[in-house]
Amino acid sequence: MRHYEIMFLVHLEQSDQTQGMISRYCDLIKSKSGIIKRVEDWGRLQLAYPIENSYKAHYVLLNVESGKEAIDELQKVFRYNDAIIRHLIVRVDEKHVDYNSPSIMRYYLEDLASYGGSMEKRAKAMDAKEGSKGGIGFGPAPVDLKAKSSFGKAQESQGAQGEVKDSDEQQVETKEEDE
Amino acid sequence: MSARNKSKRFSSDRFIRSRRCYFKANKIDHIDYKDLDLLRYFISENGRILASRLTGTSSSYQRKLSKAIKRARYLALIPYCDLHKIK
Fold this sequence. Notes:
- The structure holds two protein chains of two kinds.
- By secondary structure, chain A is an alpha+beta fold.
- Chain A has five helices and four strands; from the N terminus they run E-H-E-E-H-E-H-H-H.
- Chain A has a four-stranded antiparallel β-sheet with strand order 2-3-1-4, sandwiched between helices.
- In chain A, strand 2 (35-51) and strand 3 form a beta hairpin.
- In chain A, helix 1 runs antiparallel to helix 2 and helix 3 crosses helix 5.
- Chain A is globular.
- Chain B is built from five helices and no strands.
- Chain B is globular.
- Chain B starts with a helix and ends in a 13-residue tail after the last helix.
- Classes of the chains: A alpha+beta, B mainly alpha.
- The interface between A and B is large, with 40 and 41 residues.
């Protein structure tokens, strides 16, 4: 059976009903002989741009192994439910997902929480650790201590070796999954 | 163009082209659209996807990367541009 990753965003006003929605959709998938591999409720996050005049939404991630009928049913439900403002169903390769560990977004959110939920503070702190602003792109380089050579040797600002991911890994053990 | 002329042409760019593809160097084979730090590294200040000639990304990874960035944009995890109204 195929593995799918389902993400949907619930409008802020119906954010309280999210738990009920999650359990209903899980039951729907199980009734069509699907298996729920992982459920993550990221809670209310700030959106990068306003959707339907609101700046926050409730994010939910579902990893599922099922057949076609369950996914088709779910798509119909998403389309006709006004509370769901965005949804994305993607097929994933089993090899690329580790269901035992939380998704990478969880690590990111925990790290963000350590800066008080402010993305600007986190960006500043990451820049400060590197000692300079941005390498190639907008954000500082994601941490990779194994990379030997820096990117773009001629530019002195690129010494990209931050340590953010270390703090994330320490936080893994203290993590609790929502469901 | 000979190799010598090519290097002269690029030497005046603001960013000097990286010699390595980030993904090949770090042996990443799957680019997750939820990995925001990784995605933000490859977009510019105004939110545009950077060309692979600037980042040194190889073509197959550039395609996967742009797909991941577009998915993340759709889900409002990263912005499309820098002119969005953010409260």
